[in-house]
From TrEMBL, chain A:
It is a multi-pass membrane protein. It comes from Nannocystis bainbridge. Belongs to the binding-protein-dependent transport system permease family. Keywords: Cell membrane, Membrane, Transmembrane, Transmembrane helix, Transport. It comes from the Bacteria. PANTHER family: ALKANE SULFONATE ABC TRANSPORTER-RELATED, MEMBRANE SUBUNIT, TRANSPORT SYSTEM INTEGRAL MEMBRANE PROTEIN. This is ABC transporter permease. Residues 1-74 are annotated as: Disordered.
TrEMBL record, chain B:
It comes from the Bacteria. Keywords: ATP-binding, Nucleotide-binding, Transport. Pfam families: ABC_tran. One of its GO terms (molecular function) is ATP binding. Coiled coil: none annotated. It comes from Nannocystis bainbridge. Residues 22-246 form the ABC transporter domain. The keyword ATP-binding applies. This is ABC transporter ATP-binding protein. The keyword Iron does not apply.
């Protein structure tokens, strides 16, 4: 095949004729874009490219990259100040309501008194002890829910008949307020850790299973096709294509599962009082019985803070990492 | 063509027939069953020689994608036989279909990983392939950081990594602007000449087909049938806007329109 032995380099020829205007409408105004895509060659070889490089700028500096991002400290501050401002405004509104005299201060204390109480309880170690008891339950319950939810999700994803049969049941489970399970859980397990854990699992597992199902449904068929063509079949297809492709949706399901677990746990700790374990729920309940409004509000803040912390530090960070790696984050998100 | 016909007489004295990379023998594909069945491909027969660059053109509904799926082994024919030389063919799509969770080099390494190559062997081969498509500097980038043209070059490197003898391309440049397409035509042509690959390139752009192909196959629509084939005896490298390319493209386009009218 002598016609394949070429004297010149077709690449150079192609872009020599392509760059100066060309005869295609689409070519105008795209010089910068095209330069990025041109193969690297020395400017001695290609004076036209050198001229364009001088006119448009070096494309290697135009392409996006980690080096272009603002400093870590600045990024942290730019995401922190709106949140801090919002918290400050909420505190101001709270103080204004108290100052208006709508309720006496022994029923609705101001933020100063409550934050002071939070601080003394924290120093006394009460909050640490209660948070440890509650978080232990949360972690155990969530771990069981994770295993149950993932197993259920995988089985339903694999077996179409089961999915048709159990799909709507699962949605029903998810929408059912978990507090409604407690009377039954108490009948079955008495006032025990098991009753609380059962409801936490029932609250979180359906969300995790549904997250897994919808995220595997949304895996682009093209990626599956590409994987198959390159030899990924059976288990390898799941391991290398479907699971990583489904990960963002799955993490969203995990996060929602956590929110449900945390709610169920708080409801459980209020309803199922176990005397020897002074959990956050128990402390809330005692504060109410003792008409200790300051303590009550301080413990409510603990519940909120813990929920936000876990959501942000664990699931938020996980989600951000995945999304950033795939370019799914909006600018300045 | 007689050399690739199954019943061609094979004389001891005549030169041995060119080895065949792909052969379709009376391949028919029906989608659905019974009265609702749609014939996507109708008794299609052709052969592609080793190292040949064949372009397939046709209007939408001519069964181009069905044919590629059959050749890639993603689907099985309702009748007839598909024979492919060597291992599973590589396939490139209109979209890059890169895995967004992997870096450029990990994407290119993927088929090698599926073949069970060691990490070290993979790294060496990936560096070689990225050099071939001029993307050495972008090995650590993620697909979302690349332009459309660069993504398609990564996809090409990934397809080449498969070491297949046959490369199937499903309108790989259709989503790119005209200038980038010209550029990638040259790059693909060079790579094909360097590697001696067999390429089956599906497109609806007749000029592109004439620009690239040794041979252009023309398919009709509904059902997909092979209606004509053209040998492109123009010197390489060709230019898509050259009068010779334009002339043959016009002939093929006229035949394509005629086939479309006959089908309507």
């Amino acid at each position: 095949m002598p016609q394949r032995e070429l004297a010149g380099d077709p690449l150079a020829r192609a872009h020599l004729h392509a760059v100066p205007g060309g005869d295609d409408g689409g070519a105008t105004g795209r010089e910068g874009h095209v330069l990025i895509d041109m193969p690297e060659r020395t400017e001695a070889e290609d004076p036209l490219r050198a001229g364009l490089r001088a006119a448009v700028g070096d494309p290697s500096h135009d392409s996006p990259g980690p080096g272009d991002r603002p400093g870590r400290g600045r990024a942290l501050w730019s995401s922190a100040w709106p949140k801090l401002t919002a918290v400050a405004m909420a505190l101001v509104v709270w103080e204004l309501v108290v100052l208006s005299g709508w309720r006496p201060e022994y029923v609705l204390p101001g933020p100063g008194a409550v934050l002071g109480r939070l601080w003394t309880d924290l120093l006394a170690g009460d909050i640490g002890v209660a948070a440890a008891i509650t978080m232990k339950r949360a972690v155990i319950g969530y771990a069981i829910a994770l295993v149950a939810g993932v197993s259920l999700g995988l089985v339903l994803a694999r077996v179409k008949v089961l999915r048709t049969a159990a799909g709507s049941l699962l949605t029903g489970l998810q929408t059912m307020p978990s507090v409604a399970w407690f009377p039954l859980a108490i009948l079955l397990f008495q006032l025990s850790e098991a009753a609380i854990l059962a409801v936490v699992v029932l609250g979180a597992a359906p969300s995790i299973a549904i997250g897994l199902l919808t995220s595997t449904d949304q895996v682009p068929p093209l990626l599956v096709r590409a994987g198959k063509v390159m030899g990924a079949r059976g288990f390898a297809l799941y391991r290398h294509i479907i699971i990583p492709a489904a990960l963002p949706g799955f993490v969203a399901g995990l996060k929602q599962g956590w929110a449900f677990a945390w709610r169920s746990l708080m409801a459980g700790e209020l309803l199922v009082i176990i005397g020897h374990a002074p959990s956050i729920g128990v402390r809330l309940q005692f504060s109410r019985e003792l008409s200790d409004a300051e303590g009550l509000l301080a413990w409510m803040l603990v519940v909120m803070l813990l929920g936000v912390l876990v959501d942000g530090l664990v699931f938020g960070a996980l989600e951000r990492k995945i999304r950033e790696g795939r370019g799914l984050t909006a600018e300045h998100a | 063509m007689s050399a690739v016909l199954p019943h061609a007489p094979l004389s001891v004295l005549s030169p041995s027939p060119a080895p065949v990379a792909l052969r379709l023998d009376g391949v028919t594909k029906r989608h659905g069953a019974g009265g609702d069945a749609v014939v996507a491909l109708d008794t299609m027969s052709f052969a592609v020689k080793k190292g040949e660059f064949v372009c397939v053109v046709g209007a939408s509904g001519c069964g181009k994608s069905t044919m590629l799926n059959l050749v890639a082994g993603l689907d099985t024919p309702s009748a007839g036989k598909v024979t492919v030389a060597g291992e599973r063919p590589a396939l490139m799509f209109q979209e890059s279909a890169l895995f967004p969770w992997l870096s450029v080099e990990e994407n290119v390494a993927f088929p090698l990983q599926m073949q069970g190559l060691s990490r070290k062997a993979r790294a060496a081969r990936v560096a070689e392939l990225l050099h071939l498509v001029h993307l050495d500097k972008f090995a650590k980038r993620r697909p979302h950081e690349l332009s459309g043209g660069m993504k398609q070059r990564v996809a090409l490197a990934r397809a080449l990594a498969q070491q297949a003898e046959l490369l199937l391309m499903d309108e790989p440049f259709a989503a790119l602007d005209a200038m980038m397409r010209d550029h990638l035509h040259s790059e693909l042509e060079t790579l094909w000449q360097k590697t001696g690959l067999t390429v089956v390139f599906v497109t609806h752009n007749v000029r592109e087909a004439v620009r690239l192909g040794d041979r252009v196959l023309l398919l009709s629509s509904r059902p997909g049938r092979l209606v004509a084939e053209y040998q492109v005896d123009l010197d390489r490298p060709r230019r898509i806007e050259s009068p010779e390319v334009a002339r043959l493209a016009r002939t093929i386009t006229d035949r394509l329109l005629e086939a479309a009218r006959a089908a309507a």
